[in-house]
């Protein structure tokens, strides 16, 4: 059986009986009025939806809903959206007709059901639900309410895939027989050990989080799944009892052809392709580069046919490469809209949904089609156990004598601090956002009662008062951040001040604020070294927002501590490396690709490197220190390991066997290039531009030599500084064993 691709958009018949076209609800407004839209969820993907919706003339975004109301308000202010609410039940007050559902997948079923019951249509991010059965429940509810139910399968709108489908529909390769997919991608959350993310909570989840992208394309080409076999090629244990399957091989039969799908996550080289083999030719789309090439039968003899096949493929690649370059240049100069594959796919998906809705036409991807894609996902993950990372209960125990409250105790440095405090016999309280997927030391400590788990907002003074009750000291590692100076001011500067004021109010003995050498000006070369308690960069307003925020926070905390007599100590780690941080550390340079590092200069001067365990040891020692020697002091935590950026990258290459390269570049050349990019954006009419700061560029070079005398003299700090030992702890941990997995680190 072949799939009819002659008409848009998905040809397969639905198992659900035909229903009236969905109508705009709940107000049944006239077609002349813009569709009133709300966003449910104010996370990362919301900005893309808002940017695209702002360009649709017949759509008006009237509200953003998110339980984190401040986040919703900030997003609403950024995009001039009139209302921000904490509960979706409030959306009816704003006459919302369609809600874009942008929350984590495990919330889709409940919130989509709630929206439909409110009389609000739904346009959901993939996946619609976590099973085809749940998706069909929503389909039936939407049908009963005569409301639209669409899904953002944006990869079927990617330009290369649309061109491929057009050629298949035109019969250029005959009848589709087989589809081959390679989906091999990096995962930022995996590198950053963000194991609390929904995709890591169960081995099956990654199929539903990432799988709909390529699987929706397979479904478009070969229809419903009929049979499927999955082989697990690789897995890793993220935390005890929390397994992640990083490589899958799927062989399947659809109603209109067979398919082979290779899924690989957290990979070094990105490969995102789909090949369609037909009875009379083949096509391959490369979605990373937005190219399409193929081969067809010809009348010519084999030798000439081979020549034509190669030259035609080359010609197709060249045409697409020139088109991609031209589109990028036009978009950069402000002469055209963005045309990169991801954004073009998102724009195509969102705009076609709203266009079909207003025209009363079938939705481009409706709930029924999304359920069929989930049939594929169910089939792929069928033999994988549906286990979920266990959650712990919050503590109800009162504070204990000598309690240390750690803010950010589940992070890269924090979990080591917690381990050190427990080893020293100190009772610990960890303030957490979640109670699942916690580091082993935190989970074990919580289970045996050595750690109290509490939840609260670091932006609310009343929560901090409760969290700090009975504490002897606070370790402040959760220092906030943001993309704009306004966000950094609120989360990092003002948030840290709230922590300091709560410490004073509760009589906490010491506040340890973990800052960074980024707060200092590190662009001066020469023999002059920066001593402990050196004042922050006096021209921090010329720096990037992170460095500017660290400097502003230190100034604010020191001023408050002086006025209030709060015992404050600031610790400034250098370039912190070790297990749990990606090997592509920005302290070495700008990683243009994950194997190409462009230096902040020539990369020939020693860097202020420090092993993460040594940083944690210094924090624990400072927490345990008695007396007032540390009051009002800022301690540098840097070593003098004789390693420069170029040497580190060379050592990483030797340890990993990867094709890593360090590219020295003078700061003058880098600055000239930054100015060039600035001018191009300026000509293109890009708003919000700032002239590139040479001071910030020099500071990134980390030319300054640091002294760390106070940590050594007062705390007895003895960090690893011998070159080979340091490499063992921080570089050779990325060495791979014979199976291709990262070796267990030191």
Radius of gyration: 28 Å
Kindly report the name of the CATH homologous superfamily of one domain: Dihydrodipicolinate Reductase, domain 2
Overall mean confidence score, pLDDT: 90
Q: If strands are numbered along the chain, what order do they take across the biggest sheet?
A: 8-9-10-7-11-12-13
Distance from N terminus to C terminus (CA atoms, Å) equals 56 Å
Described by strand count, sense and barrel closure, the largest sheet is: 7 strands, mixed
Categorize the overall geometry: globular
Pick out its properties.
single chain; 746 residues; alpha/beta; Rossmann fold; Dihydrodipicolinate Reductase, domain 2; seven-stranded mixed β-sheet; seven-stranded parallel β-sheet; 22 helices; 27 strands; 36% helix; globular
């Amino acid at each position: 059986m072949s799939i009819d691709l002659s008409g848009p958009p998905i040809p397969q018949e639905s198992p659900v009986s035909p229903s009236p076209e969905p109508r705009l609800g709940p107000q049944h407004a006239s077609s002349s009025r813009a569709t009133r839209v709300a966003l449910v969820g104010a996370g990362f993907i919301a900005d893309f939806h808002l940017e695209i919706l702002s360009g649709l003339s017949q759509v008006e975004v009237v509200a953003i809903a998110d339980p984190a109301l401040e986040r919703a308000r900030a997003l609403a202010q950024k995009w001039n959206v009139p209302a921000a609410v904490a509960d979706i039940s409030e959306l009816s007050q704003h006459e919302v007709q369609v809600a874009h559902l942008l929350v984590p997948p495990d919330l889709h079923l409940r919130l989509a059901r709630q929206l439909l019951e409110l009389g609000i249509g739904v346009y959901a991010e993939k996946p619609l639900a976590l099973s085809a059965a749940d998706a069909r429940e929503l389909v039936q509810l939407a049908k009963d309410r005569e409301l639209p139910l669409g899904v953002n399968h944006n990869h079927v709108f990617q330009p290369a895939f649309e061109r491929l489908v057009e050629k298949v529909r035109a019969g250029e390769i005959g009848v589709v027989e087989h589809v081959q997919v390679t989906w091999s991608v990096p995962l930022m959350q995996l590198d950053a050990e963000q194991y609390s993310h929904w995709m890591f909570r169960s081995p099956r989840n990654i199929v539903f989080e990432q799988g709909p992208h390529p699987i929706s394309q397979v479904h478009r080409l070969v229809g419903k799944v009929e049979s499927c076999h999955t082989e697990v090629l690789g897995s890793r244990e993220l935390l005890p009892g929390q397994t992640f399957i990083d490589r899958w091989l799927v062989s399947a039969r659809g109603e209109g052809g067979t398919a082979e799908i290779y899924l690989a996550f957290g990979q070094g080289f990105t490969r995102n392709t789909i090949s369609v083999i037909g009875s009379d030719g083949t096509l391959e789309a490369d979605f990373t580069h937005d190219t399409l090439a193929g081969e067809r039968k010809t009348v010519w003899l084999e030798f000439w046919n081979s020549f034509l096949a190669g030259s035609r493929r080359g010609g197709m690649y060249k045409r697409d490469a020139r088109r991609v370059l031209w589109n990028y240049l036009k978009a950069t100069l402000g002469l055209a809209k963005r045309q990169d594959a991801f954004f073009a796919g998102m724009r195509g998906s969102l705009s076609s949904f709203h266009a079909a809705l207003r025209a009363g036409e079938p939705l481009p991807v409706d709930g029924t089609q999304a359920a069929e894609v989930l049939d594929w996902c169910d089939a792929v993950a069928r033999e994988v156990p549906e286990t979920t990372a266990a959650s712990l209960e919050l503590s109800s125990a009162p504070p204990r004598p000598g309690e240390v409250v750690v803010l950010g105790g589940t992070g890269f440095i924090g979990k080591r601090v917690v381990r050190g405090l427990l080893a020293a016999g100190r009772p610990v309280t960890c303030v957490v956002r979640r109670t699942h997927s916690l580091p082993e030391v935190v989970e074990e400590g919580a289970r045996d009662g050595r750690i109290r788990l509490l939840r609260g907002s670091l932006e609310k003074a009343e929560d901090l008062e409760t969290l700090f009750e009975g504490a002897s000291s606070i370790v402040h590692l959760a220092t906030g951040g943001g993309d704009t100076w306004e966000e950094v001011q609120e989360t990092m500067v003002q948030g840290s001040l709230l922590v300091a004021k709560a410490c004073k109010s509760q009589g906490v003995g010491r506040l340890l604020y973990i800052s960074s050498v980024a707060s200092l000006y590190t662009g001066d070369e020469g023999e002059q070294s920066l001593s402990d308690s050196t004042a922050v960069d006096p021209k921090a307003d010329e720096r990037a927002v992170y460095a500017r925020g660290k400097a502003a926070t230190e100034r604010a905390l020191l001023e408050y501590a002086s006025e209030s007599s709060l015992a404050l100590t600031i610790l400034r780690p250098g370039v912190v490396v070790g297990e749990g941080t990606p090997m592509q550390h920005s302290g070495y340079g700008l990683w243009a690709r994950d194997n190409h590092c462009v230096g902040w200069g020539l990369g020939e001067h020693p860097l202020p490197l420090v092993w993460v365990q040594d940083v944690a040891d210094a924090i624990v020692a400072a927490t345990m220190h008695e007396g007032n020697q540390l009051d009002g002091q800022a301690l540098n935590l840097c070593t003098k390991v004789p390693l420069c950026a170029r040497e580190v990258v060379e050592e990483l290459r030797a340890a990993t066997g990867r094709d890593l390269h360090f590219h020295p570049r003078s700061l003058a050349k880098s600055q000239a290039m930054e100015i060039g990019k600035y001018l191009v954006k300026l000509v293109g009419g890009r708003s919000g531009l700032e002239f590139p700061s040479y001071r910030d560029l020099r500071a990134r070079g980390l030319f300054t030599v640091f002294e760390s005398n106070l940590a050594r003299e007062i705390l007895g700090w003895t960090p690893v500084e011998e070159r080979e030992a340091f490499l063992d702890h921080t570089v050779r941990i990325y060495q791979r064993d014979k199976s291709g997995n990262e070796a267990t680190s030191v």
